[in-house]
């Protein structure tokens, strides 16, 4: 079947649209999953353990200086 | 104007326009318009929609990351507040910690403690030695690292077995953290009698990071 030029242009346009859509999808996917630098350093995220064995003080009081 | 005949048509041909086949023209025009539309959509997708969507995705990720960081920091703040409360509650007891684990070696105080314990136990203190503290370079001084330095000591005392045992017990119940590494009982001849002697070696620890003045 002989195609005329308008059909060829339509195929190219459809391919362009497909590629553009795919490119957008990949760009958004990459932007969402891009491993950028962390917001906080490990030192900043280090959590202090606030528990204290207060019975140690009682033990120390009983001991001699 | 006669156009019925071929000659008449040839003569008046300039007055006519040759139209292409109508169905083919409509289809081609549709294809062209559709192609133009698709190209326009593609153009705007690439030029306008893509950067917008990428920016939205980046901002979303940033918000998510910062929310997570905020949660972690809030958790840290809560633990710090708790620690602050505990510190405030036990601030009076901090002197006890200083006595148990002093910043400086404080060996005169330790020597006084040994003498006092020997007196209360009723034993005679024969010798008391402290080893010079080594391994601290000027570079290391002034650091805030919490680590301990040992202050080695050795005691020799003589007396009854029970009194010497008391001495050992008193040393073990010292508020200052003492690590007794060795204790030996010896019988030493003194004149015509034998004397029981106790030799004790150990370590007293103190904090690193403060100038040592001894």
TrEMBL record, chain A:
Lineage, broadest ranks: Bacteria, Candidatus Shapironibacteriota
Membrane-spanning intervals of the chain: 9-28
Source organism superkingdom: Bacteria
Keywords: Membrane, Transmembrane, Transmembrane helix
Name this polypeptide is given: Uncharacterized protein
UniProtKB/TrEMBL annotation, chain B:
Matches recorded under InterPro entries: PilO (IPR007445), Transl_elong_EF1B/ribsomal_bS6 (IPR014717)
Coiled coil: 56-83
Keywords: Coiled coil, Membrane, Transmembrane, Transmembrane helix
Protein name according to UniProt: Uncharacterized protein
Organism: Candidatus Shapirobacteria bacterium CG07_land_8_20_14_0_80_39_18
Biological processes per GO annotation: type IV pilus assembly; type IV pilus-dependent motility
Chain ranges passing through the membrane: 31-49
